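Shall we go through a protein fold together, starting from nothing but its sequence? Label the sequence line and the structure token line clearly, so we can match residues to local backbone shapes. Would you write everything just below, so we can both look at the same thing?
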Amino acid sequence: MRSRRGRAAVATLAVVLALTSGCSFGPPGPDKAGTAPNLPGPSIAATASAGPDEQEIAVTVLAKGLEVPWGIAFLPDGSALVTERDTARILKVGPESGADGLKVAEVARLAEVRPSGDGGLLGIAVSPKYASDKTVFVYYSTATENRIGKLVLGKTLEPILTGIPRSAGQNGGALAFGPDGYLYAGTGDGTATGTQAQDPKSLGGKILRMTTAGKPAPGNPVKGSLVWSSGHRNVPGLTWDKTKRMFATENTQPKFSELNVVQKGKDYGWPRADGTTTGGEFANPLVAWPAAESSCGGVASFETTVATACLLGKRIYLLNVTGNGTVLGNPQDLLNDKYGRLRALVAAPDGSLWVSTSNQEDAGEPDPEDDRLIRLVFSDGGAGRS
């Protein structure tokens, strides 16, 4: 799905977001990465109803005119690094701002990337030791495979892991450092039959756990193997909650898009399972949505809430997840078809949520401002500070 520019008229947006009282947004924790950038003011103030109580969610467009922004990761100064899938650019967004939003500057363009289909420059992760090593990690496609590499911005990209299967539609791309300090990557199966997801010798259809040198991390299920979990169709999003519980999105399955609680060594069933199963052989998803209503990409966690951004569903789902790993009440949605396809979703250092649109591709219907980065702040002081 290639990028394209559209000329559709900008629609007037009126957003009403419904949240149940089960979604609790307490005060955010301390900033993880310095002070927040000088952010532009909200463009929409949306009323959210929660039973007898009401709260407002401020929706701010931070940046416009991007092309398929795929991954977002934050630097210590509060600015964000954003990858563009098809241009192979890494952009720095903020911390400075102007009349039209945060300042956007190209800080790298990776000649090694060969975009096509859903492949290209995908996930990005900032080294936990960035203050001293200045290193970022990226997940990217070449003409024949997917790789993970590291670089200091402005210098040469160094591959640390090669041989991840490449295909037109299932390239994975999730990349994030876990609470344990190791690097995790979500890959795609890359085949129509799912043969690689169940092959322990293949890197396809897996969640991988590695050192910053691309080697198997200590404590992996099988010594000497990168595989943390298997049986995945396509993993575009990873996050952890405050209890260090790991969540991953799963998409491009024919029937369902999933949100999984990922556990060490578990098999998530692809290709034999698509959504929830009744047997005990495979791990069941936390939630499975019909694909047309979801196909979720990014995932973020804050307080007791897990949020996912959806491409086909064109919305964000919010789930209130209990301490024992079950969903309390029904998932709630917001931004439903207000900004089109939504892809990346991350919790910013200040507790707000950043989400990217993905309309500059063949499946999208872009307007002149697409693609955009959008910030969500909940007025009760939970997700973001107002």
Notes: Helices lie at 130-133. The radius of gyration is 19 Å.
